[in-house]
């Protein structure tokens, strides 16, 4: 029997293979459970390191979704000169509705504008002191989706400005752009933090596994002496890293859920101001993603440590 | 791919080796990093089913010679063959499989002190991936053989030196390797216990196991009529040749 066959013969079928892996996985789990305090500390450190980027990501992700309604074609506010009367106003509105650049026009008379201002600005009382309404009539022009390119919107606004009835044209685009720019920075920042803290988890697991390898030096040596393959020696440590990561992910999920729950009140109020509904949730899918990510990073960290330290242990 | 290459490699090795020799040294030398010589130009053959002693003063190279056979080290010059396999050319991934074919016994036993006698003896079988039932059966048989069946749940530290050595022997033979090496197995034992251990080795030898036992206990080996290889300052100084079995 050649040695290669000898090795393979000992791996009798897939059933044994699965059974052996399950056994090693359970044994590694048992080892962690037997030293609960140090395991809990390691797992909590991993949990916090994972929770931070995960929580930030969720917040940014939700705000981005919330803001996605702002994108596309902007609306253009056309402030009319005060001498423009109601008839001219509706005439202009009708004319604009015919234009290809326009999706719809909402007409606000000075009275409506005043009413809206009183309602939303909080300065309503100030207007009672004024004898006449200082607000002009406004046309809110929803531009067509085909006009989404900023340069074309600008050209359309320029065209409006040249009209005699028009005092001022304001394109409500700037803040949308700023919003998206800020969100881009936030997304990038979360990615950077995620990578850094992912590395931290890798190192934490790596170091923990390294210490474990040191403490099981004799066992590894004797196992190699009686013919343990490298993968046999590696396996319990890889599963150890896997469990650390998995439970770290679980802790991270709990931390994120609690944090978002603490944020829920103010967030609801903010969303209410935008007539919107912004709810942060950490459902089972996020739990799954976090534990899987944790397990994967844990496995990876362990794999790095094992690769570096196991080769050094050879039987004397 | 893997299968064909390993088969080709081993069959080529086999064809150049004598069929009956289990352990074969051909001008084998071992020089350690730093220049210290472990073994110089050693050549000998041990046939299948032979039992031989390896003797010599401390530092003569007995341990080095055994370590070359178990592939704990590789020789720097010459060749070492075990079962017709050239160890110098054995790829790393097959080292584990080679070690499973060579049982090794140490003076300091090398037992795991946080595991029971049973678990210590079971290790070679667990490492080889045997089923639980088979492991149980074989460990019991091995412990029975060395007379420690009743101590299977004990921790090694609670056993006497002779008993610990017998646990080490049970571990070396539990996977029924064709070759068993022992490095000063009686070093810490009194003459009576030493003889007992040697008788145990003779029993293994009678069922076909090839044994090579390093010891400096000249009086002990002179009472047993086996082949004796003598090392002197890392060179093979004398070889009595194969003797008639007792």
SSE order of chain B in H/E notation? HEEEHEEHEHHHEHEHEE
Profile the largest sheet of chain A: 4 strands, antiparallel
Write down how many β-strands of chain A occur, each being a DSSP E stretch of 2 or more residues: 4
Measured as a percent range, the helix fraction of chain B is: 25-40%
Overall structural domain count of chain A: 2
Ends of chain B: how far apart?
A: 47 Å
Q: Biggest sheet of chain B, strands in spatial order?
A: 6-7-8-3-9-10
The gyration radius over C-alpha positions of chain A equals 32 Å
Number of helices of chain A: 11
Uncertain stretches of 5 or more adjacent residues of chain A = none
Secondary structure blueprint with pairings:
The complex is a heterodimer of chains A (316) and B (246).
Chain A: H1 3-9, H2 13-34, H3 36-67, E1 75-80, H4 86-98, E2 102-108, H5 110-121, H6 124-128, E3 138-143, H7 150-161, E4 166-171, H8 174-215, H9 217-225, H10 230-273, H11 284-309
Antiparallel strand pairs in A: 1-3, 1-4, 2-3
Helix pairs in contact in A: 2-10, 3-8, 3-10, 8-10, 8-11, 10-11
Chain B: H1 2-16, E1 21-31, E2 37-47, E3 51-55, H2 62-69, E4 77-82, E5 85-86, H3 95-100, E6 102-106, H4 117-127, H5 132-145, H6 161-173, E7 179-183, H7 191-206, E8 210-214, H8 218-223, E9 227-232, E10 235-239
Parallel strand pairs in B: 3-8, 3-9, 6-7, 7-8
Antiparallel strand pairs in B: 1-2, 1-4, 4-5, 9-10
Helix pairs in contact in B: 4-5, 4-6, 5-6
Protein model, in words:
The complex is a heterodimer of chains A (316) and B (246). Chain A is built from 11 helices and 4 strands, in the order αααβαβααβαβαααα. Chain A is α+β, with helices and mostly antiparallel strands. In chain A, strands 2-3-1-4 form a 4-stranded antiparallel beta sheet. The longest helix of chain A is centred in the C-terminal third of the chain and has 44 residues, at 230-273. The termini of chain B are far apart. In chain B, helix 4 crosses helix 5. Chain B has a domain at 111-176. In chain B, the strands form 2 sheets. Chain B has a 6-stranded mixed beta sheet with strand order 6-7-8-3-9-10, sandwiched between helices. A 4-stranded antiparallel beta sheet of chain B has the order 2-1-4-5. In chain B, 36% of the residues lie in helices and 25% in strands. Chain B has helices spanning 2-16, 62-69, 95-100, 117-127, 132-145, 161-173, 191-206, 218-223; strands spanning 21-31, 37-47, 51-55, 77-82, 85-86, 102-106, 179-183, 210-214, 227-232, 235-239. The chains are: A alpha+beta (316), B alpha/beta (246). The interface between A and B is medium-sized, with 27 and 31 residues.
């Amino acid at each position: 029997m050649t040695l290669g066959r000898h090795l393979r013969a000992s791996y009798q079928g897939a059933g044994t293979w699965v059974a052996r892996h399950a056994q090693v996985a359970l044994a590694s789990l048992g080892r962690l459970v037997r030293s609960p305090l140090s395991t809990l500390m390691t797992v909590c450190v991993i949990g916090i390191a994972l929770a931070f980027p995960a929580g930030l990501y969720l917040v940014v992700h939700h705000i981005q979704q919330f803001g996605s309604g702002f994108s596309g074609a902007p609306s253009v506010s056309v402030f009319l000169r005060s001498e423009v009367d109601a008839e001219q106003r509706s005439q202009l509105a009708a004319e604009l509705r015919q234009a290809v650049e326009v999706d719809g026009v909402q007409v606000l008379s000075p009275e409506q504008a005043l009413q809206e201002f009183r309602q939303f600005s909080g300065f309503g009382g100030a207007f009672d002191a004024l004898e006449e309404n200082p607000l002009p009539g406004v046309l809110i022009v929803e531009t067509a989706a085909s006009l989404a390119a900023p340069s074309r919107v600008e050209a359309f606004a320029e065209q409006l400005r040249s009209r005699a009835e028009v005092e001022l044209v304001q394109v409500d685009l700037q803040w949308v752009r700023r919003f998206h720019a800020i969100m881009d920075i936030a997304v990038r920042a979360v990615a950077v933090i995620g990578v850094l803290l992912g590395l931290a988890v890798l190192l934490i697991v790596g170091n923990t596994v390294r210490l474990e390898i040191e403490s099981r030096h004799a066992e590894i040596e004797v196992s190699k002496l009686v013919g343990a393959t490298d993968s046999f020696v590696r396996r319990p440590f890889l599963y150890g890293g896997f469990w650390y990561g998995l439970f770290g992910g679980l802790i991270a999920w709990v931390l994120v859920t609690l944090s978002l729950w603490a944020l829920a009140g103010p967030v609801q109020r903010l969303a209410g101001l935008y007539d919107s509904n912004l709810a942060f949730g950490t459902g089972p899918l996020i739990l799954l993603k976090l534990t899987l990510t944790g397990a994967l990073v844990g496995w990876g960290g362990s794999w790095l440590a094992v690769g570096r330290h196991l080769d050094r242990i050879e039987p004397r | 791919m893997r299968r064909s290459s390993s088969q080709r490699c081993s069959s080529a090795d086999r064809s150049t080796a004598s069929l009956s020799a289990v352990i074969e040294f051909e001008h084998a030398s071992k020089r350690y990093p730093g220049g210290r010589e472990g073994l110089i130009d050693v050549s000998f053959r041990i046939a299948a089913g032979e039992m031989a002693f390896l003797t010599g003063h401390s530092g003569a190279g007995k341990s080095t010679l055994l370590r070359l056979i178990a592939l704990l080290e590789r020789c720097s010059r010459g060749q070492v063959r075990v079962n017709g396999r050239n160890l110098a050319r054995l790829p790393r991934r097959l080292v584990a499989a080679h070690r499973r074919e060579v049982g090794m016994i140490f003076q300091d036993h090398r037992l795991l002190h946080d595991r029971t006698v049973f678990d210590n003896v079971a290790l070679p079988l667990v490492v080889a991936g045997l089923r639980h039932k088979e492991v149980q059966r074989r460990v019991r048989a091995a412990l029975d053989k060395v007379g420690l069946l009743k101590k299977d749940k004990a921790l090694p530290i609670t056993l006497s030196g002779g008993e610990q050595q017998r646990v080490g022997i049970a571990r070396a033979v539990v996977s029924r390797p064709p070759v068993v090496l022992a490095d000063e197995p009686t070093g810490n034992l009194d003459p009576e216990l030493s003889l007992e251990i040697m008788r145990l080795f003779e029993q293994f030898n009678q069922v076909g196991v090839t044994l090579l036992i390093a010891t400096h206990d000249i009086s002990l080996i002179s009472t047993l009529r086996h082949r004796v290889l003598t090392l002197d300052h890392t060179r093979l100084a004398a070889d009595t040749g194969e003797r008639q079995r007792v």
